[in-house]
Design a protein that fits this description.
Length: 171
């Protein structure tokens, strides 16, 4: 299992960014990263650029769910896509006071309304090499299925958040 601080993940080739973290909610942690400068844009094989100068990454870590949600925005504040990491636990790191999640390997992406499940092979390998327990393996699969259902039937409350209230476009 991999503990990931949100201040350090998904920022390869980014050498300058701003991180704002909001704790004003009993239901989730929310972090906003504004990419100020990257040495090289991050472009998916489909040609979609997710990280570039003046782009945003919004991360929502539900306190009582086993996943985190990442939303990518371009410099025009247009939503580009979603990335969900299945997690064992989400919380605040004692030492750094930064939100973190314990990554359970499997991910779900949404790009142009196309939903994909990623890294199920990594989850199985983690089980086979005793990096995770059978219970954690089952939790990851159950969370994945429940999350897929909430995405498909448009009932995921975190995808419905009003991000404007966080004034994210002013950072």
């Amino acid at each position: 299992m991999r503990k990931k601080l949100i201040s350090k993940t998904y920022l390869r080739d980014v050498d300058k960014y701003r991180l704002d973290i909001y704790y004003d909610n009993n239901d989730y942690y929310l972090a906003i990263k504004k990419i100020i400068h990257t040495n090289e844009p991050f472009v998916l094989p489909t040609g979609l650029c997710l990280i570039d100068n003046n782009y945003f990454i919004v991360e929502v870590l539900p306190k009582n769910e086993n996943y985190i949600m990442r939303i990518y925005f371009n410099e025009k504040k247009e939503r580009l896509g979603y990335y969900f990491d299945i997690s064992l636990k989400n919380g605040i790191d004692e030492e750094s006071k930064i939100p973190y999640y314990d990554d359970l390997y499997t991910d779900i992406t949404i790009e142009n309304e196309k939903i994909e499940i990623l890294d199920e092979d990594e989850l199985k390998e983690a089980l086979d090499t005793n990096k995770i327990t059978n219970e954690e393996f089952e939790l990851a699969n159950e969370t994945k299925e429940n999350l897929l259902q909430s995405i498909k039937n448009n009932s995921n409350k975190y995808m419905q958040l009003d991000l404007e209230k966080y004034l994210i476009w002013n950072i």
